[in-house]
Amino acid sequence: MKQIVRMFLVIFIVCFGLIYLVNYMNKSAGYSGDNTLTIYNWGDYIDPDLITRFESETGIKVIYQTFDSNEAMMTKIKQGGTSYDISIPSEYAIDKMRAEGLIQPIDHSKLPNLQYIDPRFLGLSFDPNNDYSIPYFWGTVGIIYNPNLVGGITFESWDDLWSEELSNNVFLLDGAREVIGMGLNSLGYSLNDTNEAHLQEALKKLSQLTPNVKAIVGDEIKMLMAGEEAAAALVWSGDASEIMDDNEELDYIVPNEGSNLWFDNIVIPSTARNIDGAHQFINFMLDPEVAALNTEYVGYSTPNYAALELLDEEISGDERFYPDEELTARLEVYKNLGPRMLSHYNDLFLEFKMHRK
Ligand code: SPD
User: Residue 166 CA to chain centroid, in angstroms?
Assistant: First the structure.
């Protein structure tokens, strides 16, 4: 009898251990049952109330993680440790991820709210039929500055950031394409340039900016600029809009030489487990009321024309963040330059960062 009890005890402990192990493995892979949705998004890039609302409307539990660059996001998705159901890369990264089989086709028949996207943001070269990606936010790269702290500089050109008056008074956003792109643009080259001599020239020019660079920062750039910790910064337009909400003294410009026009779109990674939930989430975010709330919260420019109509004219009519045709003509979209050149851009950026130390 004792032996039977002991045998049952051993079986019980083994079964319990196995259940615990499977649960643990599922959790660390971002999966804890059919009713979860694992989202991988940029930091500060969604109104958290909308996640709660999505959960209560659908009964789907959201697991939410953030990244701070396309490069970090792609590396993590490629490693495959976590099964993400949703991510939000930028255009050149979408092209790269599609080429590498990291994202899967999206079923438009499950997205009735796709009708609210302005056709200008559909069918772009990085995903001509939007088979793999659905517009989320878009914007430009430019300079935010505090007129009270810049010693009379009226910002028009990238070169203004190199002014002696700005010694140790400039923040840069932590992005390889943005910083190298600024170096290239300031010399009159394309921000998709792959000519090695031009890239080295850009790196040299950037090294001359070093005395002015106070720090290279992530999302905290918003708090720092609103708190007047520097006179000027290289930023994404949506961050500028948020900073200017907090501190009305500041202004944002896109330099005359040109800059970047970018698009962040929602994708479904190939490793997704909750494909139906992913479509429900995309359709939810496309709802005009939801997209308007998200735009108000995040501060970035929405591609959803029906959401735009719900927003205050102060937001939708602001040409700094919804640029007219004349400005748009001076902007360039990042291309997927191929794995070797993209990693060369990253190396150049690292070299620039090292030079600062
Ligand atoms: N804090 C949210 C940042 C999102 C910025 N995406 C812009 C990418 C441009 N390549």
Answer: 28
